[in-house]
Structure formats: structure tokens, C-alpha cells
Design a protein that fits this description.
The complex is a heterodimer of chains A (773) and B (196).
Chain A: H1 3-8, H2 10-37, H3 49-59, H4 64-73, H5 78-108, H6 115-147, H7 157-174, H8 179-197, H9 200-230, H10 239-265, H11 274-282, H12 288-295, H13 305-335, H14 346-366, H15 373-390, H16 393-399, H17 401-419, H18 421-426, H19 445-452, H20 468-485, H21 506-529, H22 538-550, E1 555-559, H23 563-567, E2 577-578, H24 587-590, E3 602-607, E4 615-618, H25 665-672, E5 689-691, H26 694-703, H27 710-714, E6 716-717, H28 722-731, E7 766-767
Parallel strand pairs in A: 1-3
Antiparallel strand pairs in A: 2-3, 3-4, 5-6, 5-7
Chain B: H1 14-21, H2 25-38, E1 46-47, H3 48-52, H4 55-58, H5 63-70, E2 77-78, H6 80-88, H7 95-99, H8 112-123, E3 130-131, H9 133-143, H10 150-164, E4 172-173, H11 174-180, H12 186-189
Antiparallel strand pairs in B: 1-2, 3-4
Helix pairs in contact in B: 1-6, 9-10
The chains are: A mainly alpha (773), B mainly alpha (196).
């Protein structure tokens, strides 16, 4: 569950959960009673006002299971989803309290109810909900604390997670508090710390197990529901009651939603429009909770129980089946604006994508989610105290958001580099003899097809013939190509929780690619503007870089070195350090970590200029934590490019990068020591790529014309390092990270021109794969 | 908003900005708050680095170009007026406002034409009023993944330019650009709801 989004919309969620449920309960109960007074309900249904109120309270609760199931199919925007889902989670407390209160009133008999009892009822609402939340938080704390120490006993981590979460549930149940709230709060509270502490394998285990268990549980619940429906000894039918209930719950929910939304929109940054309201009211599905509660009624106290049971079954069936099935077509129908009668031209397609990207970018500039004072305060508190207490030392240091993004991107990069290894570089004509060609060309199938089918579409326009059919074929081909290749703009409409699958994230790969290109471009533009200017800020920068590193900031230095130096690099590779270099900004201000921006991706390229002194080009870029892919434990696949949204799940998919700056080896070694590694086959044979320093390049250049694509190609070399890699691999224990250095920042062919002058300020990116020292 | 900006009078030149951009008070306050958040060192203006620190822009293929569009004419700073002016392009179009507008007044910044002009400028980097084939190629390269090769990209570019180009000069002028997008609902595609 996307916690950031949850807390952003907490006001709305609470309103709907508490006020909405109360409203639903009362109005439905009273309306049904009115119906009975009007005689539409058969008199054999012996129920008074309190009975109807009781019934109203149990039938009014929106069910999280059903909501989740349905909304996953209907890809509504995430705000809407989280509001409905959050509401369904939090209204449990209200439902339980209402039910218990009404139940006890019914048992006491309506004549005995006094004013104080009402007050007690209200008070118990607060006690139940807040108590449940408190229990959950206590267990969250416990869980986070214990996982901090499980480094040597990794196998019990999934067990711990399950047990403590279940313990939270049981404890709350025992104390008659809201158990759902307890479990929710436990999950929300401990997510960040537990993810940082437990190993990747444990995380995966927990995630998959949870999904399995959840599926099983839902299936069982609905089976029970179905079986009960068939067993007619348990219920008695009354048409008036049933139809009346159906009508009222729909009607009053819609009314309630409209009223509350109107009030909420006065305060919200992004108002909820009509379509949202329709989806919200139509998506209020009832489920198993209502059924369980109605079965628990005591027939002696509530004589109309059987009728209530029948009604509840019908209601649940109706909402889940009818509403659930029709909500998707409804949504589609409501959103339909234009119908495409013509195939969009290439231009339109392209420009549409452009506009989407532009809009996403401007939304980010405007800061769609605004500035939240309290969240900032909370995050500061969290950073200072909680994280230190609850997170493993090493994870804490690394935990810094800045590092996380960079880290994860590097991993993605490594994997995809290896995956596409043959692909990317082969397109430039370079072959990698030692690289296994693990080409996962899934997403490039069209391209592949086109390229490999020799007699396929001829894409060379110069050769185009004016035959009509050829042009049409080309048209189709172009469209395919464009569609397949275009980056997708940030998704604003998607279900956040996938229940039945854990999706791969093509979005992450796209993000990484775009990120690299952007960084590269920025570096280059920076280089070209600062070319030949000698900065004397090197020393303080290094020290500051070191200092920053201690604070956990992602720092790395890429230093340009002669090849002979590289040979003796037993430590792993070199990180790219780009520091900010704006004159107007003071040094220290850049090192602060801001909430919104999270990670400061610091890369510095220093060049060992032959004649001039060191040129250090640098600038700082802060990707925000939004890049982070979703938390694996919660199947939240929110692509969090919203400001600061989403916890930084250290989602190590398969490789960890160990990036060690040349001069700060020991510091880095320690800090990265506890990173988990999952060695996967491809990385075993990754070669060492080295970028040659300018000197040999300078020699090459007179011979090689300044060809854009030639330079990066020629600068990759593959010294025979497999022996070394093999040796160092054996050194590393299973617990230590395999290091995969990567950073083909220069890998892209679209280099800007490398003039002889700028060749001096060259990057040395060492691609190394070695064990830890 | 946070405790920083709470009064409209704190914004410098607020009346002029409001006239130019057409933003409501609430929106201006919100934007000013955002401006101050981005302006780390309280300089009173934003530099490129400030904008680059918005993480989402780093994974947006057009992120850098958007940033550049804030800095007109090669300047390295943008003040709040400039910031608001650029963002005014994305204000939703108000139909009644458009109907009651005096035709002699300059077009509001969020008119369809101006929105298209803004987008056009993102393509046309050298500001010569035309999107040349090279510029189109660059934009395409930005937006397309690495698996599409350069030859394919070139042919796509040629095709795209060909489609839009009517006078045969091998480049897409602003009018041709507008014409090729006449069916697209620009008003909706380039508007942000919260910027009323």
C-alpha cells in the first residue's frame, strides 16, 4: 500500500471512514425502520428502531477485500483508489464499535438506554480505534527492533514478520480493539525499517507468501458466503426488506459521498471531481465483514435475525457481483471523450507523447503535492531518532535516500547492461567476447523482428518506392516502432496494489535509461561550459565529499587514471562523483538533504589533464526518492515519481553495486559491508571495462576522425580480468555483496562532440568486478 | 502551505503578475510557496540546479528541456514572475473568460495558440521558427528507448517531418505544427487542474 499517498489523503480517508460510515449506518437504519412503519416490510419481521440501527451499522461498512479485488481491475487514478481503499480499512473500527454499541443496546432493551450509554458509546469509538492503532504501532516497533538484529539468522526473518503482525491482530482482538486497524498500523509503521533490515530473499519470501495467503483467505471467505446462501435453514426472505436495503444503501452512500466531497473539496488541493465521486459511491462494496457480523447476532435478542441474514447475503452478492462487474464498463463509459475514427498520424502520436511528458514535468515543477510542514518535521524526527534505533547500522548509513536511488539505478543498470550487453554494444559494432548474450529482447521484439527479417520492411527512406502498398506497410512499421519505443509518461492511472501478480517494472528500466541520458547530457553541457577552467576547489570538495559520505550521501568519484593504476585496483570500482559546481551556491548548502528532493546524486569527474591542472567538473543532481520502485513486501507497484512519495524500498533485485571511491576505500567498504547480494549468473562473467585516459586517446585522435560513435567505442577495453574476477569472487562470502560496477554513462552513442579540447576532461569509468577487500 | 508564505502582499509585483498570467490569488500563493521551497538558499530567484533537484525531472525525457524553457534568452536565473509566466501556459482554459475577452487585448498566456507555441519552443531549440529535421531527430532520440536504432530513428524522423511539412522546405514551421495538431485537444492536454 502506498503509504505516502495514504497519509497525504488521510483527511479525506478519515472523513469518509468515520463520518461516512456513521451517516450510512444511521440513515439506512432509520430509513428501513421508516419502511417498516410504512408497512412495506412484512410484520413477521419483528424489529424495532434499535434493531434496524444495528442492521444498518453492519451493512454499511465498505469491505476492503472486495474493494481491492474490484479496483485492481479498474485502473482508476491512485488518489481515488487510496481514498476508497483507505476508507474501507479504517471504517472497521467504526463498524465494530457501532455494532457492539447497538448490540448492547438491543440486549439491554430500548427502554433502558440512557444518555450516559450514548456517551460511552462515543467514547468507546475512540478507544477502539486509537487503541487498535496503538497496539499496531507497538508491534511495529517491536518488529522493526528485532529485525535489526537478525543479520546472522536471516532465515527467521519472514517468520518474524508474519508472527508479529499476526500477534498484533490477536492482541487487538483479545482487548476488543479494532484488529484491522492494528494490523494496518503495524504494517505501515514498520515497513520502512523492516525493509531496510531484512534481506532481499526474506523480502521476496514475505511478499509471495502474503499474496498466497491473502488469495486463499479471500477464496475461503467467499466460498463460505456462497455455501451459506444455499443453506436455506439459516435465512428467511422478505422482499420489502431486501429491496429496501439495496435501494437505501446505494442511495445513501451516493448522497453521503456527494455531501462529504463537497465539504472536503473546500480544503483539498486537488478537488475530487464528479467522476471520482461516482466511482467512489458505486465502488462501495460490501463483503464478508457484514456477513460475519450478521451471523453473530443472537437470535433470542434479535428475532429478525434470519431476515437480516438473507438481506445481507443478497446485498453482498449484489454489490460484489453486479457492482463489481459493471464498475469497469461504467468507468470506461464515463471517461470516454473522443472517438478515434482515423488512425492517428505519426505526428500526432509523437506530439501526444511529448505533451504528456511536458505535463508530467510541469506538474512536478509545480509540486503537485505541495509542501507539508508536518511531514517534514516527522521525517526529521524519524531520521534523527527512529531510524537510528530501528534500522541496522549499515542499512541506516546506506539508507539515506540519496544513495538509495542512485544505488538502485545502478543495479538496474548493471542488470540491463549485462542483459542487453550484446545488444547495446553490438549495435555500435563492438563485440564482447566474454559476455554471455543474455538478450532479453522481450520489449524489442518488433525491432528485432524488423532487423532480423532480412526481407522485412525496408526502413531506409531513401530507397522508398512510391508504390502505395509499400508506403502503407512503412506506415504500419513506423507506428509499431514508435509505439514500442516511446517512453511512457508517468502513469497517473494505475492500480496500486496488484493482488494476483507481482509485476515486473518496465517503468523502472525506462526511468533508469532516461535518468542516465539526462545525467549524461547535463554533465556534457556542464563540461562544455566549464571547459578549460581550472577549479581550485578540488581539495575542499574531496574532503567535503568524504564528509558527505559519512553522512550517507551518495558520493563517488570517478577519477581519471592511467591504465597501470587501474590494474592494481583490487577494490571495486569507482563511483562517479559529480558535485555541484555552481558558483553562486555555497558549498555547504548543497550537502543538505531536503525532503522533497531526497538523494543528491553526486558525481565528480576529475580529469588528469596532461598540461593543465585538474579539471573538476561537477554539478549536483538530486533525483527524488520517487524513482524508487515500490516496496516489494506490499506489492505496491506505485511508480513513485511524485514528490518524495513512497518509502525508499531498498529493492535490490539482483545485483548490488559496490561503488567505492578511490580514496575512501575503507570507509566505503564498511558502509557497504552488509549489503545483500544475490549473485545471478550473468554477473559472473562480467568483464572489466575500462575507459582509457586521455593520453592514449589523444594519440588515437589524429588518426580517428572525430566521430561521435567511434570515441566511446574505442574507449572500452577488456583487459583479461576474468582470472582476477574469479579469484576475487572466491574471496567473497555469500553474505558479501558481489560488486558489479557499471556506469555506462558514456555508453550511449549519442555523444556530443568530443573535441580534442574536451578530451582532456575525460571520464574514467572503471568497470570492475571484484570482491570486497 | 507551510508557514512561509501566507499573504499575497509578500509576493513582489503581485498585481502585474496576476494581470499577465491570470492566476487566482490562491494559485499564486501556492506557486509562490513552491517557488520558495525550490529556492533553497533564499536567493529570490531560481537557478538551473534548483530545478534540477526536482527528482522527477531527472527521469523525464524532456525534463532538461522544460528546465531550459524557464530560462529565457540564456539567462541563468529566473525570478518568480518568470516562473509564474511559464507556468501560466498550463492554466486550464476558462471558456467564459475566453468568450468575454476583449479581442484587442493580447492573448492570454494559456490560450491554445500560446500553449502550442510553448510546446513548439521545446522542439525548436535554435529559435529560428522552424523545427528542422535535426531538431526533430533530437527530440525523438530523447523520447525513444535505447532499443530503437539510429537508422530506424532517422527514418521515423524523415517520415514525421514529411507528414507535417507542407511547403516542402524540410522543416516544420509553427503554422504547419499547429495544423498537424488541429484535431488534438490541446486545451485539455496541456492544462493542470490545480492551476486555476
Amino acid at each position: 500500500m502506498p503509504s505516502r499517498l495514504f497519509f497525504d489523503n488521510l483527511g479525506a480517508i478519515l472523513t469518509y471512514a468515520v463520518v461516512g460510515t456513521l451517516w450510512n449506518a444511521f440513515t439506512t437504519g432509520v430509513a428501513l425502520w421508516g419502511l417498516q412503519q410504512a408497512g412495506l416490510v412484512a410484520s413477521r419481521v419483528q424489529a424495532g428502531l434499535l434493531d434496524f440501527l444495528l442492521f444498518g451499522s453492519l451493512i454499511s461498512a465498505v469491505d476492503p477485500v472486495a474493494v481491492l479485488a474490484v479496483f485492481e481491475e479498474v485502473h482508476v487514478n491512485e488518489t481515488l483508489f487510496i481514498i476508497v481503499f483507505g476508507e474501507s480499512l479504517l471504517n472497521d473500527a467504526v463498524t465494530v464499535v457501532l455494532y457492539k454499541v447497538c448490540n448492547s443496546f438491543v440486549e439491554m432493551g430500548s427502554a433502558n438506554v440512557q444518555a450516559t450509554d450514548y456517551m460511552k458509546g462515543v467514547a468507546s469509538l475512540f478507544v477502539v480505534s486509537l487503541g487498535g492503532a496503538a497496539v499496531g504501532l507497538v508491534f511495529a516497533f517491536l518488529l522493526a527492533l528485532t529485525t535489526r538484529f537478525t543479520k546472522r539468522v536471516r532465515i527467521i526473518e519472514p517468520l518474524l514478520v508474519f508472527l508479529l503482525a499476526y500477534a498484533a491482530y490477536l492482541t487487538a482482538e483479545m482487548a476488543s480493539l479494532s484488529a484491522i486497524l492494528a494490523v494496518t498500523m503495524c504494517g505501515l509503521g514498520c515497513k520502512k525499517y523492516v525493509e531496510a533490515n531484512i534481506s532481499h530473499k526474506s523480502r521476496t519470501a514475505v511478499k509471495y507468501t502474503m499474496k498466497t495467503l491473502a488469495s486463499c483467505a479471500e477464496t475461503v471467505i467467499f466460498m463460505l458466503l456462497g455455501i451459506s446462501a444455499v443453506d436455506s435453514s439459516k435465512w428467511a426472505w422478505d422482499s420489502g426488506l431486501v429491496l429496501g436495503t439495496l435501494f437505501f444503501i446505494l442511495f445513501f452512500r451516493a448522497l453521503g459521498v456527494v455531501l462529504q466531497t463537497w465539504v472536503l473539496n473546500q480544503f483539498r488541493l486537488v478537488p475530487l471531481d464528479k467522476i471520482d465521486q461516482v466511482v467512489m459511491s458505486y465502488g462501495g462494496l460490501r463483503g464478508a465483514v457484514a456477513f460475519a457480523l450478521v451471523i453473530l447476532l443472537d437470535r433470542t435478542k434479535v428475532p429478525a435475525k434470519d431476515y437480516f441474514v438473507a438481506t445481507t447475503i443478497v446485498v453482498v452478492f449484489f454489490t460484489v457481483i453486479v457492482q463489481g462487474l459493471t464498475i469497469k464498463p461504467l468507468v470506461k463509459w464515463l471517461k470516454v471523450k473522443r472517438s478515434e475514427h482515423h488512425k492517428p498520424t505519426l505526428n500526432q502520436e509523437l506530439h501526444e507523447h511529448t505533451f504528456d511528458h511536458i505535463l508530467a514535468a510541469v506538474e512536478d515543477v509545480v509540486g503537485h503535492h505541495g509542501y507539508h510542514y508536518w511531514r517534514d518535521r516527522w521525517e526529521q524526527f524519524d531520521k534523527k531518532y527512529l531510524s537510528q534505533l530501528l534500522m541496522r547500522r549499515s542499512a541506516y548509513r546506506i539508507r539515506d535516500q540519496i544513495w538509495d536511488v542512485y544505488y538502485r539505478l545502478n543495479i538496474r543498470d548493471a542488470i540491463s547492461f549485462v542483459d542487453q550487453g550484446g545488444h547495446v554494444l553490438s549495435s555500435t559494432g563492438l563485440t564482447l567476447p566474454s559476455m554471455p548474450s543474455r538478450n532479453s529482447m522481450a520489449e524489442t521484439s518488433v525491432t528485432n523482428l524488423l532487423r532480423e527479417s532480412g526481407s522485412g520492411a525496408c526502413l531506409d527512406l531513401q530507397v522508398i518506392d512510391t508504390v502505395r502498398s509499400g508506403r502503407d506497410r512503412e506506415d504500419a512499421v513506423m507506428h509499431h516502432l514508435l509505439c514500442g519505443g516511446l517512453y511512457k509518461p508517468r502513469r497517473r492511472y494505475k492500480a496500486s496494489c496488484g493482488r494476483h501478480f507481482i509485476s515486473e517494472d518496465a517503468q523502472e528500466r525506462q526511468d533508469k535509461e532516461v535518468f542516465q541520458q539526462n545525467m549524461k547530457r547535463r554533465l556534457e553541457s556542464f563540461k562544455s561550459t566549464k571547459h578549460n577552467i581550472c577549479f581550485t576547489k578540488n581539495k575542499p570538495r574531496t574532503r567535503k565529499a568524504g564528509h558527505k559520505k559519512k553522512d550517507g550521501m551518495a558520493n563517488a568519484e570517478a577519477t581519471l587514471e592511467k591504465p597501470r593504476d587501474l590494474g592494481f585496483q583490487d577494490t571495486a570500482a569507482v563511483i562517479l562523483t559529480v558535485e555541484s559546481e555552481e558558483e553562486e551556491e555555497s558549498d555547504s548548502s548543497e550537502t543538505e538533504k531536503e525532503d522533497d528532493e531526497g538523494i543528491i546524486f553526486v558525481a565528480r569527474a576529475t580529469s588528469e589533464v596532461l598540461q593543465e591542472g585538474k579539471i573538476s567538473g561537477s554539478f549536483e543532481v538530486c533525483p527524488s526518492p520517487r524513482i524508487i520502485p515500490p516496496s516489494p513486501t506490499c506489492a505496491e507497484k506505485e511508480l513513485p515519481w511524485k514528490s518524495g512519495q513512497g518509502d525508499l524500498a531498498v529493492y535490490v533485485s539482483s545485483e548490488t553495486t559496490k561503488i567505492v571511491p578511490v580514496d575512501m576505500q575503507t570507509g566505503w567498504n564498511q558502509s557497504i559491508s552488509s549489503l545483500e547480494s544475490l549473485a545471478s549468473p550473468p554477473c559472473t562473467q562480467a568483464p572489466t571495462l575500462t575507459c582509457l585516459p586521455p593520453h592514449p586517446l589523444g594519440i588515437e585522435e589524429p588518426q580517428v576522425p572525430l566521430d561521435l560513435s567511434a570515441d566511446p567505442r574505442s574507449s572500452f577495453a577488456f583487459p583479461p580480468s576474468l582470472a582476477k574476477a574469479g579469484r576475487s569472487r572466491s574471496e567473497s562470502s555469500a553474505d558479501l555483496p558481489q560488486q558489479q560496477e557499471l556506469q555506462p554513462l558514456m555508453g550511449h552513442k549519442d555523444h556530443t562532440h568530443l573535441s580534442p579540447g574536451t578530451a582532456n576532461s575525460h571520464w574514467c569509468i572503471q568497470f570492475n568486478r571484484g570482491g570486497r577487500l | 502551505m507551510g508557514p512561509r508564505s501566507s499573504h499575497i502582499a509578500l509576493i513582489p509585483d503581485v498585481d502585474q503578475i496576476r494581470n499577465e498570467t491570470g492566476f487566482s490569488e490562491a494559485s499564486l500563493l501556492r506557486l509562490y510557496g513552491r517557488f520558495q521551497t525550490l529556492d533553497r538558499n533564499k536567493k529570490g530567484f531560481l537557478s538551473r540546479t534548483d530545478l534540477q533537484q526536482i527528482g522527477a525531472l531527472a527521469v523525464n525525457p524532456l525534463g532538461d528541456r522544460i528546465i531550459d524553457s524557464f530560462f529565457l534568452d540564456g539567462s541563468q536565473q529566473v525570478d518568480f514572475a518568470g516562473f509564474a509566466r511559464v507556468l501560466a501556459h498550463f492554466r486550464p482554459v476558462d471558456e467564459e473568460e475566453a468568450a468575454t475577452r476583449d479581442p484587442k487585448d493580447p492573448e492570454p498566456l494559456n490560450s491554445r495558440m500560446n500553449k502550442l507555441r510553448f510546446a513548439f519552443q521545446l522542439y525548436d531549440l535554435d529559435r529560428d521558427g522552424k523545427i528542422s529535421r535535426n531538431e526533430m531527430l533530437q527530440v525523438l532520440r530523447l523520447m525513444v528507448g535505447v532499443q530503437v536504432t539510429d537508422e530506424q530513428l532517422e527514418s521515423i524522423t524523415d517520415r514525421t517531418v514529411q507528414e507535417a511539412d507542407e511547403d516542402g522546405d524540410g522543416a516544420v514551421s509553427f503554422l504547419e505544427f499547429t495544423k498537424s495538431l488541429e484535431k488534438m485537444n490541446i486545451e485539455q492536454k496541456m492544462s493542470i487542474r490545480i492551476l486555476k
